[in-house]
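Discussion board: Methods & Data

I've been asked by a reviewer to show the raw model output for two of the constructs in my manuscript, not just the figures. I'm not sure how much to include, so I'm pasting the format here to get opinions. Each protein appears as its amino acid sequence followed by a line of C-alpha coordinates. Is this the kind of thing reviewers expect to see in a supplement, or should I convert it first? Here is construct A:
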Amino acid sequence: MRKGIYLALLTTLVSGFSIFANKIFVSGADPLAFTTVRNIVVAGILTTILLRSRKSLQELKSLKRNDWLRLALIGTLGGGVAFALFFVGLSKIGAIQGNLIHKTLFIWVAFMAVPFLGERLNKIQLVGYAGIFLATFVLGGPANFVFNKGSLLVLAATLLWALENVIAKVALKNISSLVVGWARMVIGALVLTLITIGLGKGQMLFSPKTLAFMPLMVSSGFLSIYVLSWYAALKRLPATVATVVLVLAPMITTFLTGVFISHAVIPNSQLISFLVMTVGVGMTGFIVSPLKIRGDREGL
Protein backbone atom coordinates (compact mmCIF):
# COMPACT_ATOMS: atom_id res chain seq x y z
CA MET A 1 0.00 0.00 0.00
CA ARG A 2 2.74 2.47 0.99
CA LYS A 3 4.79 1.84 -2.16
CA GLY A 4 1.65 2.30 -4.23
CA ILE A 5 1.01 5.68 -2.60
CA TYR A 6 4.58 6.78 -3.33
CA LEU A 7 4.21 5.71 -6.96
CA ALA A 8 0.87 7.55 -7.24
CA LEU A 9 2.52 10.68 -5.80
CA LEU A 10 5.37 10.31 -8.30
CA THR A 11 2.82 10.07 -11.11
CA THR A 12 1.07 13.17 -9.80
CA LEU A 13 4.36 15.06 -9.56
CA VAL A 14 5.29 14.04 -13.11
CA SER A 15 1.86 15.11 -14.36
CA GLY A 16 2.13 18.52 -12.67
CA PHE A 17 5.61 19.16 -14.05
CA SER A 18 4.60 17.84 -17.47
CA ILE A 19 1.74 20.32 -17.86
CA PHE A 20 4.06 23.11 -16.70
CA ALA A 21 6.81 22.07 -19.14
CA ASN A 22 4.33 21.84 -22.01
CA LYS A 23 3.44 25.51 -21.40
CA ILE A 24 7.11 26.43 -21.82
CA PHE A 25 7.98 24.18 -24.75
CA VAL A 26 4.91 24.99 -26.82
CA SER A 27 5.43 23.86 -30.41
CA GLY A 28 2.31 25.44 -31.92
CA ALA A 29 1.46 22.11 -33.53
CA ASP A 30 -2.03 20.70 -33.93
CA PRO A 31 -2.74 19.10 -30.51
CA LEU A 32 -4.07 15.82 -31.93
CA ALA A 33 -1.19 15.42 -34.39
CA PHE A 34 1.38 16.27 -31.73
CA THR A 35 -0.21 13.83 -29.26
CA THR A 36 -0.19 11.09 -31.89
CA VAL A 37 3.50 11.54 -32.69
CA ARG A 38 4.40 11.85 -29.02
CA ASN A 39 2.56 8.65 -28.20
CA ILE A 40 4.35 6.89 -31.05
CA VAL A 41 7.67 7.98 -29.54
CA VAL A 42 6.58 6.75 -26.09
CA ALA A 43 5.46 3.46 -27.60
CA GLY A 44 8.95 3.11 -29.06
CA ILE A 45 10.58 3.86 -25.70
CA LEU A 46 8.45 1.31 -23.84
CA THR A 47 9.03 -1.27 -26.59
CA THR A 48 12.79 -0.82 -26.16
CA ILE A 49 12.46 -1.32 -22.40
CA LEU A 50 10.27 -4.38 -22.93
CA LEU A 51 12.65 -6.00 -25.40
CA ARG A 52 15.49 -5.65 -22.90
CA SER A 53 13.51 -7.56 -20.26
CA ARG A 54 13.61 -11.32 -20.72
CA LYS A 55 10.98 -11.70 -18.01
CA SER A 56 8.55 -9.44 -19.87
CA LEU A 57 9.11 -11.26 -23.15
CA GLN A 58 8.34 -14.56 -21.45
CA GLU A 59 5.26 -12.98 -19.92
CA LEU A 60 4.00 -11.91 -23.36
CA LYS A 61 4.25 -15.50 -24.57
CA SER A 62 2.22 -16.75 -21.61
CA LEU A 63 -0.67 -14.30 -21.93
CA LYS A 64 -4.07 -15.85 -22.49
CA ARG A 65 -6.83 -14.76 -24.84
CA ASN A 66 -8.71 -12.81 -22.15
CA ASP A 67 -5.48 -11.04 -21.20
CA TRP A 68 -4.93 -9.87 -24.78
CA LEU A 69 -8.58 -8.79 -25.00
CA ARG A 70 -8.19 -6.58 -21.93
CA LEU A 71 -4.92 -5.14 -23.24
CA ALA A 72 -6.60 -4.40 -26.57
CA LEU A 73 -9.43 -2.58 -24.78
CA ILE A 74 -6.99 -0.60 -22.64
CA GLY A 75 -5.01 0.48 -25.70
CA THR A 76 -7.99 1.20 -27.93
CA LEU A 77 -10.15 3.03 -25.41
CA GLY A 78 -7.63 4.68 -23.10
CA GLY A 79 -4.60 5.03 -25.33
CA GLY A 80 -6.43 5.89 -28.54
CA VAL A 81 -10.07 6.96 -28.71
CA ALA A 82 -10.06 8.87 -25.40
CA PHE A 83 -7.07 11.00 -26.46
CA ALA A 84 -8.75 11.87 -29.75
CA LEU A 85 -12.05 12.82 -28.08
CA PHE A 86 -10.26 14.87 -25.45
CA PHE A 87 -8.21 17.00 -27.82
CA VAL A 88 -11.01 17.51 -30.33
CA GLY A 89 -13.28 18.58 -27.47
CA LEU A 90 -10.56 20.75 -25.94
CA SER A 91 -10.26 22.71 -29.19
CA LYS A 92 -13.91 23.73 -28.79
CA ILE A 93 -14.02 24.71 -25.11
CA GLY A 94 -10.48 25.61 -24.03
CA ALA A 95 -8.08 24.16 -21.47
CA ILE A 96 -9.73 25.50 -18.29
CA GLN A 97 -13.11 23.86 -18.84
CA GLY A 98 -11.50 20.78 -20.32
CA ASN A 99 -9.26 20.21 -17.31
CA LEU A 100 -12.17 20.86 -14.96
CA ILE A 101 -14.21 18.11 -16.62
CA HIS A 102 -11.21 15.78 -16.62
CA LYS A 103 -10.91 16.26 -12.84
CA THR A 104 -14.15 14.30 -12.46
CA LEU A 105 -12.19 11.13 -13.36
CA PHE A 106 -11.97 10.01 -9.71
CA ILE A 107 -15.77 10.21 -9.40
CA TRP A 108 -16.45 8.00 -12.43
CA VAL A 109 -13.77 5.53 -11.34
CA ALA A 110 -15.47 5.25 -7.95
CA PHE A 111 -18.87 4.62 -9.59
CA MET A 112 -17.33 1.80 -11.65
CA ALA A 113 -14.88 0.38 -9.10
CA VAL A 114 -17.48 -0.26 -6.40
CA PRO A 115 -19.71 -2.62 -8.44
CA PHE A 116 -17.10 -4.08 -10.82
CA LEU A 117 -14.00 -4.32 -8.62
CA GLY A 118 -15.69 -4.72 -5.25
CA GLU A 119 -13.92 -1.69 -3.74
CA ARG A 120 -15.56 -0.08 -0.73
CA LEU A 121 -15.48 3.49 0.54
CA ASN A 122 -15.96 4.21 4.24
CA LYS A 123 -17.49 7.34 5.72
CA ILE A 124 -14.18 9.17 6.13
CA GLN A 125 -13.33 8.57 2.51
CA LEU A 126 -16.73 9.82 1.38
CA VAL A 127 -16.16 13.02 3.34
CA GLY A 128 -12.81 13.29 1.56
CA TYR A 129 -14.53 12.88 -1.80
CA ALA A 130 -16.98 15.64 -0.87
CA GLY A 131 -14.08 17.93 0.08
CA ILE A 132 -12.34 17.33 -3.26
CA PHE A 133 -15.57 18.00 -5.12
CA LEU A 134 -16.12 21.23 -3.15
CA ALA A 135 -12.56 22.42 -3.76
CA THR A 136 -12.59 21.59 -7.46
CA PHE A 137 -16.05 22.59 -8.63
CA VAL A 138 -17.25 25.18 -6.12
CA LEU A 139 -14.20 26.98 -4.72
CA GLY A 140 -11.95 26.55 -7.77
CA GLY A 141 -14.36 26.25 -10.69
CA PRO A 142 -14.89 28.94 -13.33
CA ALA A 143 -18.01 31.07 -12.97
CA ASN A 144 -18.88 30.98 -16.68
CA PHE A 145 -18.83 27.24 -17.28
CA VAL A 146 -20.80 26.29 -20.40
CA PHE A 147 -21.69 22.72 -21.32
CA ASN A 148 -21.67 22.22 -25.10
CA LYS A 149 -20.55 19.70 -27.74
CA GLY A 150 -16.91 20.18 -26.83
CA SER A 151 -17.69 19.56 -23.16
CA LEU A 152 -19.53 16.39 -24.11
CA LEU A 153 -16.50 15.11 -26.05
CA VAL A 154 -14.17 15.78 -23.10
CA LEU A 155 -16.62 14.10 -20.73
CA ALA A 156 -16.79 11.07 -23.05
CA ALA A 157 -12.98 10.91 -23.01
CA THR A 158 -12.95 11.09 -19.22
CA LEU A 159 -15.49 8.26 -18.97
CA LEU A 160 -13.37 6.14 -21.31
CA TRP A 161 -10.28 6.78 -19.18
CA ALA A 162 -12.26 5.79 -16.10
CA LEU A 163 -13.34 2.57 -17.80
CA GLU A 164 -9.76 1.97 -18.93
CA ASN A 165 -8.52 2.22 -15.34
CA VAL A 166 -11.09 -0.30 -14.15
CA ILE A 167 -10.16 -2.73 -16.94
CA ALA A 168 -6.47 -2.14 -16.21
CA LYS A 169 -7.02 -2.90 -12.52
CA VAL A 170 -8.42 -6.30 -13.51
CA ALA A 171 -5.64 -6.92 -16.04
CA LEU A 172 -2.95 -6.00 -13.51
CA LYS A 173 -3.96 -8.91 -11.30
CA ASN A 174 -1.89 -11.26 -13.44
CA ILE A 175 -0.04 -8.98 -15.89
CA SER A 176 2.92 -6.76 -15.02
CA SER A 177 2.54 -2.98 -15.07
CA LEU A 178 5.24 -2.74 -17.77
CA VAL A 179 3.33 -4.98 -20.17
CA VAL A 180 0.04 -3.18 -19.51
CA GLY A 181 1.65 0.23 -20.05
CA TRP A 182 3.41 -1.01 -23.20
CA ALA A 183 0.19 -2.39 -24.69
CA ARG A 184 -1.67 0.80 -23.86
CA MET A 185 0.82 2.98 -25.71
CA VAL A 186 1.54 0.70 -28.69
CA ILE A 187 -2.09 -0.13 -29.47
CA GLY A 188 -3.17 3.39 -28.60
CA ALA A 189 -0.57 4.94 -30.93
CA LEU A 190 -1.87 2.83 -33.81
CA VAL A 191 -5.48 3.80 -33.10
CA LEU A 192 -4.55 7.48 -32.75
CA THR A 193 -2.69 7.40 -36.06
CA LEU A 194 -5.72 5.94 -37.83
CA ILE A 195 -8.03 8.53 -36.23
CA THR A 196 -5.70 11.41 -37.11
CA ILE A 197 -5.53 10.27 -40.74
CA GLY A 198 -9.29 9.69 -40.79
CA LEU A 199 -9.88 13.28 -39.65
CA GLY A 200 -7.78 14.56 -42.54
CA LYS A 201 -4.81 15.57 -40.40
CA GLY A 202 -2.34 12.98 -41.67
CA GLN A 203 -0.07 15.58 -43.25
CA MET A 204 0.24 17.36 -39.90
CA LEU A 205 2.02 14.34 -38.46
CA PHE A 206 5.09 15.36 -40.47
CA SER A 207 4.95 19.13 -40.06
CA PRO A 208 8.00 20.89 -38.54
CA LYS A 209 5.90 22.13 -35.61
CA THR A 210 4.72 18.60 -34.80
CA LEU A 211 8.26 17.22 -35.01
CA ALA A 212 9.88 20.07 -33.06
CA PHE A 213 12.62 18.27 -31.14
CA MET A 214 12.53 19.87 -27.70
CA PRO A 215 8.72 19.88 -27.14
CA LEU A 216 8.47 16.32 -28.48
CA MET A 217 11.31 14.93 -26.36
CA VAL A 218 10.28 16.69 -23.15
CA SER A 219 6.64 15.65 -23.49
CA SER A 220 7.56 12.08 -24.48
CA GLY A 221 9.94 11.74 -21.55
CA PHE A 222 7.35 12.87 -19.03
CA LEU A 223 4.65 10.64 -20.52
CA SER A 224 6.96 7.59 -20.46
CA ILE A 225 7.63 8.05 -16.74
CA TYR A 226 3.94 8.77 -16.15
CA VAL A 227 2.78 5.53 -17.78
CA LEU A 228 5.36 3.37 -16.00
CA SER A 229 4.70 4.84 -12.56
CA TRP A 230 0.91 5.03 -12.98
CA TYR A 231 0.30 1.37 -13.79
CA ALA A 232 2.78 0.34 -11.10
CA ALA A 233 0.74 2.41 -8.62
CA LEU A 234 -2.59 1.08 -9.89
CA LYS A 235 -1.33 -2.49 -9.48
CA ARG A 236 -0.71 -1.85 -5.77
CA LEU A 237 -3.59 0.48 -4.89
CA PRO A 238 -7.37 0.41 -5.16
CA ALA A 239 -8.42 2.36 -8.24
CA THR A 240 -10.46 4.74 -6.07
CA VAL A 241 -7.36 5.76 -4.11
CA ALA A 242 -4.93 6.00 -7.04
CA THR A 243 -7.13 8.26 -9.14
CA VAL A 244 -7.89 10.58 -6.23
CA VAL A 245 -4.19 11.32 -5.73
CA LEU A 246 -3.99 12.53 -9.35
CA VAL A 247 -6.26 15.52 -8.64
CA LEU A 248 -3.29 17.21 -6.96
CA ALA A 249 -1.42 17.53 -10.28
CA PRO A 250 -3.01 20.86 -11.39
CA MET A 251 -2.11 22.33 -8.00
CA ILE A 252 1.57 21.57 -8.67
CA THR A 253 1.30 23.16 -12.12
CA THR A 254 -0.30 26.29 -10.66
CA PHE A 255 2.47 26.77 -8.09
CA LEU A 256 5.21 26.22 -10.70
CA THR A 257 3.54 28.67 -13.08
CA GLY A 258 3.19 31.31 -10.37
CA VAL A 259 6.83 30.99 -9.29
CA PHE A 260 8.60 30.67 -12.64
CA ILE A 261 6.31 32.27 -15.27
CA SER A 262 3.64 34.69 -14.05
CA HIS A 263 5.44 35.66 -10.81
CA ALA A 264 1.97 36.38 -9.45
CA VAL A 265 0.64 35.78 -5.97
CA ILE A 266 -1.88 32.95 -5.86
CA PRO A 267 -5.30 34.31 -4.75
CA ASN A 268 -6.48 33.40 -1.27
CA SER A 269 -9.58 31.72 -2.71
CA GLN A 270 -7.39 29.38 -4.75
CA LEU A 271 -5.15 28.67 -1.78
CA ILE A 272 -8.22 27.72 0.25
CA SER A 273 -9.34 25.48 -2.61
CA PHE A 274 -5.93 23.78 -2.66
CA LEU A 275 -5.99 23.30 1.10
CA VAL A 276 -9.45 21.71 1.06
CA MET A 277 -8.42 19.52 -1.88
CA THR A 278 -5.27 18.34 -0.11
CA VAL A 279 -7.20 17.50 3.06
CA GLY A 280 -9.76 15.60 0.97
CA VAL A 281 -7.05 13.57 -0.75
CA GLY A 282 -5.46 12.86 2.61
CA MET A 283 -8.73 11.61 4.07
CA THR A 284 -9.29 9.39 1.06
CA GLY A 285 -5.91 7.78 0.63
CA PHE A 286 -3.55 8.54 3.48
CA ILE A 287 -5.36 8.82 6.82
CA VAL A 288 -7.70 5.86 6.52
CA SER A 289 -6.51 2.26 6.57
CA PRO A 290 -6.17 0.43 3.24
CA LEU A 291 -9.47 -0.27 1.53
CA LYS A 292 -10.89 -3.73 1.76
CA ILE A 293 -11.48 -5.42 -1.54
CA ARG A 294 -14.71 -7.38 -1.65
CA GLY A 295 -13.81 -10.55 -3.53
CA ASP A 296 -11.79 -10.79 -6.72
CA ARG A 297 -14.60 -10.61 -9.24
CA GLU A 298 -13.53 -10.16 -12.82
CA GLY A 299 -16.58 -8.35 -14.05
CA LEU A 300 -14.72 -7.17 -17.14
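Construct B, same format:
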Amino acid sequence: MKHFFRSCLAVGALLAIGNPATAQSFDWKQQDGQTLTLLLNNHPWSQAVKDLAGEFTEKTGIRLRLDVSNEEQFRARLTTVLQARSPDIDVYMSLKPREGAVFAKAGWYADLGPMLRDPKLTAGDYAFEDFGSALREA
Protein backbone atom coordinates (compact mmCIF):
# COMPACT_ATOMS: atom_id res chain seq x y z
CA MET A 1 0.00 0.00 0.00
CA LYS A 2 1.36 3.42 -0.85
CA HIS A 3 1.04 4.75 2.66
CA PHE A 4 2.43 1.71 4.47
CA PHE A 5 5.47 3.57 5.79
CA ARG A 6 3.33 6.33 7.27
CA SER A 7 0.89 3.74 8.59
CA CYS A 8 3.57 1.94 10.55
CA LEU A 9 4.62 5.19 12.15
CA ALA A 10 1.04 5.86 13.12
CA VAL A 11 0.47 2.44 14.59
CA GLY A 12 3.70 2.71 16.59
CA ALA A 13 2.59 6.09 17.87
CA LEU A 14 -0.82 4.70 18.73
CA LEU A 15 0.73 1.91 20.76
CA ALA A 16 2.98 4.31 22.69
CA ILE A 17 0.53 7.19 23.02
CA GLY A 18 0.48 7.32 26.79
CA ASN A 19 4.16 7.96 27.49
CA PRO A 20 4.85 11.69 28.09
CA ALA A 21 8.64 11.25 28.41
CA THR A 22 8.86 10.35 24.76
CA ALA A 23 7.19 13.60 23.72
CA GLN A 24 10.29 15.56 24.73
CA SER A 25 12.65 13.87 22.27
CA PHE A 26 10.44 12.40 19.56
CA ASP A 27 8.61 14.49 16.94
CA TRP A 28 5.08 13.16 17.32
CA LYS A 29 3.78 15.78 14.86
CA GLN A 30 6.03 14.86 11.92
CA GLN A 31 2.98 13.57 9.99
CA ASP A 32 0.60 16.33 11.13
CA GLY A 33 -2.33 16.79 8.76
CA GLN A 34 -2.24 13.28 7.33
CA THR A 35 -5.19 10.88 7.37
CA LEU A 36 -4.91 7.12 7.75
CA THR A 37 -7.66 4.72 6.75
CA LEU A 38 -7.84 1.58 8.85
CA LEU A 39 -9.78 -1.47 7.67
CA LEU A 40 -10.66 -3.43 10.79
CA ASN A 41 -12.68 -6.43 11.85
CA ASN A 42 -15.26 -5.89 14.60
CA HIS A 43 -13.03 -6.89 17.51
CA PRO A 44 -12.06 -5.58 20.98
CA TRP A 45 -8.79 -4.26 19.50
CA SER A 46 -10.78 -2.25 16.94
CA GLN A 47 -12.89 -0.78 19.71
CA ALA A 48 -9.74 0.20 21.61
CA VAL A 49 -8.41 1.97 18.51
CA LYS A 50 -11.75 3.75 18.11
CA ASP A 51 -11.68 4.82 21.77
CA LEU A 52 -8.13 6.20 21.44
CA ALA A 53 -8.54 7.84 18.02
CA GLY A 54 -9.16 11.35 19.40
CA GLU A 55 -6.17 11.21 21.72
CA PHE A 56 -4.04 9.85 18.87
CA THR A 57 -5.05 12.73 16.58
CA GLU A 58 -4.40 15.27 19.31
CA LYS A 59 -0.90 13.90 19.95
CA THR A 60 0.16 13.25 16.34
CA GLY A 61 -2.01 15.47 14.16
CA ILE A 62 -2.92 12.35 12.15
CA ARG A 63 -6.62 11.74 11.64
CA LEU A 64 -7.91 8.18 11.62
CA ARG A 65 -10.67 7.03 9.30
CA LEU A 66 -11.97 3.74 10.68
CA ASP A 67 -13.76 1.21 8.47
CA VAL A 68 -15.00 -1.49 10.87
CA SER A 69 -17.22 -4.37 9.76
CA ASN A 70 -18.15 -7.90 10.73
CA GLU A 71 -15.78 -10.78 9.94
CA GLU A 72 -17.29 -11.88 6.63
CA GLN A 73 -17.60 -8.36 5.18
CA PHE A 74 -14.15 -7.41 6.47
CA ARG A 75 -12.41 -10.40 4.87
CA ALA A 76 -14.19 -9.94 1.53
CA ARG A 77 -13.35 -6.22 1.38
CA LEU A 78 -9.75 -6.74 2.54
CA THR A 79 -9.06 -9.38 -0.09
CA THR A 80 -10.59 -7.23 -2.83
CA VAL A 81 -8.65 -4.11 -1.81
CA LEU A 82 -5.34 -5.96 -1.50
CA GLN A 83 -5.70 -7.82 -4.78
CA ALA A 84 -6.48 -4.55 -6.55
CA ARG A 85 -3.46 -2.91 -4.86
CA SER A 86 -5.88 -0.12 -4.01
CA PRO A 87 -4.70 2.93 -2.04
CA ASP A 88 -8.07 2.95 -0.22
CA ILE A 89 -6.60 1.53 3.01
CA ASP A 90 -3.40 2.23 4.88
CA VAL A 91 -3.63 -0.21 7.79
CA TYR A 92 -5.50 -3.48 8.14
CA MET A 93 -5.91 -6.30 10.61
CA SER A 94 -4.55 -9.71 9.74
CA LEU A 95 -4.53 -13.10 11.40
CA LYS A 96 -1.22 -14.66 10.43
CA PRO A 97 -2.26 -18.29 11.15
CA ARG A 98 -5.25 -17.86 8.85
CA GLU A 99 -3.93 -15.87 5.87
CA GLY A 100 -0.28 -15.25 6.71
CA ALA A 101 1.33 -17.51 4.10
CA VAL A 102 -0.85 -16.14 1.30
CA PHE A 103 -0.40 -12.51 2.36
CA ALA A 104 3.37 -12.91 2.73
CA LYS A 105 3.70 -14.55 -0.69
CA ALA A 106 1.63 -11.75 -2.26
CA GLY A 107 3.86 -9.09 -0.66
CA TRP A 108 1.14 -7.72 1.60
CA TYR A 109 3.32 -7.82 4.71
CA ALA A 110 6.44 -5.81 5.44
CA ASP A 111 9.33 -6.25 7.85
CA LEU A 112 8.80 -3.56 10.48
CA GLY A 113 12.25 -4.11 11.99
CA PRO A 114 13.97 -1.29 10.08
CA MET A 115 11.21 1.15 11.07
CA LEU A 116 11.34 0.09 14.71
CA ARG A 117 15.12 0.68 14.77
CA ASP A 118 14.91 4.12 13.13
CA PRO A 119 14.80 6.80 15.90
CA LYS A 120 13.02 9.22 13.55
CA LEU A 121 10.16 6.74 13.10
CA THR A 122 9.89 5.07 16.50
CA ALA A 123 10.11 6.73 19.91
CA GLY A 124 13.24 5.71 21.79
CA ASP A 125 11.34 4.27 24.72
CA TYR A 126 9.07 2.08 22.61
CA ALA A 127 9.48 -1.39 24.12
CA PHE A 128 8.94 -3.97 21.40
CA GLU A 129 10.06 -6.59 23.92
CA ASP A 130 6.82 -5.96 25.82
CA PHE A 131 5.09 -8.05 23.16
CA GLY A 132 5.22 -11.82 23.58
CA SER A 133 8.04 -13.66 21.81
CA ALA A 134 5.64 -15.55 19.51
CA LEU A 135 4.19 -12.29 18.22
CA ARG A 136 7.62 -10.68 17.82
CA GLU A 137 8.93 -13.68 15.88
CA ALA A 138 5.87 -13.79 13.63
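Answer (T.O., handling editor elsewhere):
This is acceptable in a supplement if you add a one-line summary per construct. For B, something like: The radius of gyration is 15 Å.
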